[in-house]
Specification:
Elements (H helix, E strand, L loop, with lengths): L1 E4 L1 H11 L4 E4 L6 H12 L6 E4 L3 H13 L4 E5 L1 H6 L1 H9 L5 E6 L13 H4 L7 E4 L3 H18 L3 E6 L8 E4 L3 H7 L23 H33 L6 E4 L6 E6 L2 H14 L4 E6 L1 E3 L3 H8 L4 E6 L9 H10 L10 E5 L9 H12 L7 E3 L3 H4 L1 H7 L2
Parallel strand pairs: 2-3, 2-4, 4-5, 5-7, 6-7, 10-11, 10-13, 13-14, 14-15
Antiparallel strand pairs: 1-8, 6-12, 9-11
Length: about 400
């Protein structure tokens, strides 16, 4: 069924189609309409689920952990400061191997106070054990929520489905919403092997001594490695059902590309326009969009980028005191390549706090690297110090 939906609405429909049984959430801009939509679906009888109203994001995830431990399919959503408040239990959910799905609407961290998008909130949870999927469109959002449940329940790891604040969360798009019967065939009911069961009692999350703790963490790491293949398998299966296949990454005009632009989320849509324009000029440009960030597809990226002439990475995030986070990860993935096959990588940090990334920005980045005018490893793009040094000195003092 075709519908016109905001990204947040697409999340809600994905959760409905996945037949989530427990929703535990606390509202925060720009995530709120996800929870409002699901509350309406529950109250109107369109979704047979228990909706738990809580007083904070910490309690929201605690409710999910409890329900998931009892064997329920669960969902929550948050953004920025809310995700930060969940941090203790983000670790717990992954360590307990619970297949929770969380929609995070990327919002810049405070202070300064901001409700607009960048990726530092989700990327600050990079090393917690959660899988992360970055979406470009509302169509991808609804599809990814459903796929996330299937992957999480196969490998027993939680997943964040991540979408940009406002650029995606509050923008209406044409979306093909799958039929319930098709989704039911794709996503079977959850049967959690380690759930709380009075007939088969067991200790969950108990004390682990030093002679066993590392083995638990090694199993989590192995599950992430297995998950790479599961994401590909599930994406192919979804494509066979809907005509919309998904992979760990997406390639656009990469055949013969010598100048490769790498980014994630909605910035990729803008980049496509620039890639087309550069191709018309004869510049062999291509786009590589990161979709599944954790587990990180190092070998796949190494195979795609080896032998390219130049790579440009756009980060809507920053690891302060270092580089953009996607930039770091890609450099690490390419480190073992022979010198002749390892392309130079130039990173750009842009769009923090919701600042727009326009086609001319991306074109400027790509032309600057292609023409060897940008030689620094990382460049902060479109900042006051470059536009008006006098004003920047006052603002940054």
């Amino acid at each position: 069924m075709r519908m016109v939906l905001k990204g947040n609405g697409a999340v809600a429909h994905g959760v409905r189609l996945a037949r989530a049984q427990v929703i535990s959430a606390y509202p925060i801009t720009p995530q709120t309409s996800i929870i409002e939509g699901l509350a309406d679906m529950v109250s109107e009888g369109k979704l047979d689920a228990k909706f738990i109203k809580v007083e904070s994001e910490h309690s929201a995830l605690a409710g999910c952990i409890s329900a998931s431990s009892a064997g329920a399919r669960v969902f929550t959503a948050t953004s920025a400061q809310g995700l930060a408040l969940m941090h203790e239990l983000i670790h717990w959910a992954a360590g307990a191997r619970l297949p929770i799905v969380l929609a995070n609407v990327n919002r810049a961290m405070a202070p300064g106070w901001s409700i607009w998008t960048d990726q530092n909130d989700s990327l600050s949870q990079r090393d917690t054990g959660w899988m992360q999927v970055y979406c470009e469109s509302s169509q991808e959002v609804v599809d990814s929520v459903i796929q996330a449940y299937k992957v999480s329940e196969k490998v027993l790891l939680p997943t964040m489905v991540i979408l940009d604040a406002f650029f995606l969360s509050h923008t209406y798009e044409d979306v093909e919403v799958p039929e319930q019967e098709m989704v039911d065939g794709f996503l079977p009911p959850l049967h959690l092997p380690q759930k709380m069961d009075l007939e088969h009692p067991a200790a969950l999350g108990n004390l682990v001594f030093p002679d066993r703790y590392m083995e638990f963490r090694r199993k989590m790491d192995l599950a992430h490695q297995v998950a790479l293949g599961v994401w590909e398998e599930v994406g192919r299966e979804w494509g066979e059902l809907t005509g919309r296949p998904y992979g760990l990454v997406e390639e656009y005009r990469m055949e013969g590309a010598e100048l490769v632009f790498v980014t994630a989320a909605t910035a990729a849509s803008t980049a496509r326009v620039v890639i087309d324009a550069l191709r018309e000029e004869g510049i062999p440009a291509g786009l590589l969009r990161l979709r599944v960030f954790r587990p990180f597809p190092s070998e796949l990226l190494r195979g795609i980028l080896a032998g390219r002439r130049k790579v440009v990475v756009l980060d809507r995030n920053c690891s302060f005191g270092h580089h953009g986070i996607f930039h770091q990860e890609i450099k690490s993935a390419l480190y073992g390549l022979p010198d002749a096959e390892r392309p130079p990588i130039r990173g750009f940090i842009a769009g923090l706090g919701g600042r727009d990334i326009r086609p001319d920005d991306i074109e400027g980045m790509m032309r600057g690297v292609w023409e060897d005018r940008v030689t620094d490893p990382v460049t902060w793009w479109d900042v006051l110090e470059a536009k008006d040094p006098a004003r920047a000195a006052v603002v940054m003092a």
